[in-house]
Amino acid sequence: MCAAQAVVPYPAKPIRLVVPYSPGGNTDVFARLIAQRLTVAWGQQVVVDNRAGGNTLIGTELVARSIADGYTIMLTTLTFTVSPSLYKKLPYDTVRDFTPITLAVVLPNVLVVHPSVPAKSLKEMIQYAKVNPGKLNYASTGNGTSPHLSMELLKTMAGISLVNIPYKGGAPALADLMGGQISAQFIGLSVAIPFIKSGKLRALAVTSSKPSSVAPDIPTVGETVPGYELDAWFGVLGPGGMPEPLVQRLQQAIAKILHSPDFKEHLVSLGAEPVGSSPLKFATYIKSEISKYAQIVKTTGIQAE
């Protein structure tokens, strides 16, 4: 039996979509939206399996060790491509042990500050930080996460010093930021928008190369710090060695969901952009991201927790 014939009945049983994060964050939200649509399209349950811990290593290793039959896949983030630079030894090979399926969604972070911070723009914040080194602090929610990298890259490129206050979760960090215990934080634009609109937080800049359609009045970091760009991304991978027909079937189904009018509209309302790239393009993107973050980790001196 050829490979194409072997996968004709796929999926014939429930599919597990592993999320290496706790419930409630953007990765979990996007995973559940995709899982729900795949369940309807295929008539087989797609179950989201949250496997948080170890800065995503626990859930990621689970997928690497799974059978490459298409019934265990993963939605992960750019942390996947940062880990090779953060850890001297990983329990898997980031390239060999995974099959890229599609880059699903990209989402900018936004730099927000408490209204008490005497800066109405990123330029003013940088000037204030230079005159008052170490006076401003910022919340981070895990080494190598996109919010952490966003601030570390800004600090390096702008030549400023802010005190890192680590948190175990986004919710307590956000609460302290709104309470004034924290000066600044990079967070997902979709999370920040309600607090920006209510005036509880002040938005200074987004990390993408161009302003977000959902908040076009917020400038980019790159307008003040030339060359700065860092997007959060969410992509789907499976264990290494998945048969090509399975990979194509998954990619096509997920891309169709991402670009359906109502789903796309929902993503855009969150400040996110659907992608749905080919497996080959995603594989190339992963390799470029590994190289990019290796340089950032080296420059900023970030270390694993």
Global geometry: globular
Mean pLDDT across all residues, rounded?
Answer: 92
Low-confidence stretches: 1-7
- What is the tally of beta strands? 10
Residue share in β-strands? 15-25%
How many domain modules? 2
Could you walk me through the main structural features you see in this protein, from its secondary elements to its overall organization?
The structure is a single chain. Helix content is 41%, strand content 20%. It is of the alpha/beta class and 305 residues long. It has two domains: 12-106 and 232-300, Bordetella uptake gene, domain 1 (D-Maltodextrin-Binding Protein, domain 2, 3-Layer(aba) Sandwich), CATH 3.40.190; 108-223, Periplasmic binding protein-like II (D-Maltodextrin-Binding Protein, domain 2). Strands 1, 2, 3, 4, 7, 8, 9 and 10 form an eight-stranded mixed sheet that branches. Strands 5-6 form a two-stranded parallel ribbon. Helix 2 (26-42) packs across helix 9 (244-258), helix 4 (79-86) packs across helix 11 and helix 6 (146-158) crosses helix 11 (279-300). The longest helix has 22 residues, at 279-300. It starts with a helix and ends in a 5-residue tail after the last helix. Residues 1-7 have low confidence and may be disordered.
Jot down its keywords.
D-Maltodextrin-Binding Protein, domain 2, globular, disordered N terminus, alpha/beta, 2 domains, 305 residues, 41% helix, single chain, 11 helices
State the gist of this model.
The chain has 305 residues and is of the alpha/beta class. The chain is 41% helix and 20% strand.
SSE layout and pairing:
Blueprint (H helix, E strand, L loop, with lengths): L2 H4 L8 E5 L6 H17 L3 E5 L6 H8 L7 E6 L1 H8 L11 E16 L8 H10 L5 E4 L5 H13 L4 E4 L3 H10 L4 E5 H9 L4 E5 L24 E9 L4 H15 L2 H9 L3 E2 L4 H22 L5
Helix pairs in contact: 2-9, 4-11, 6-11
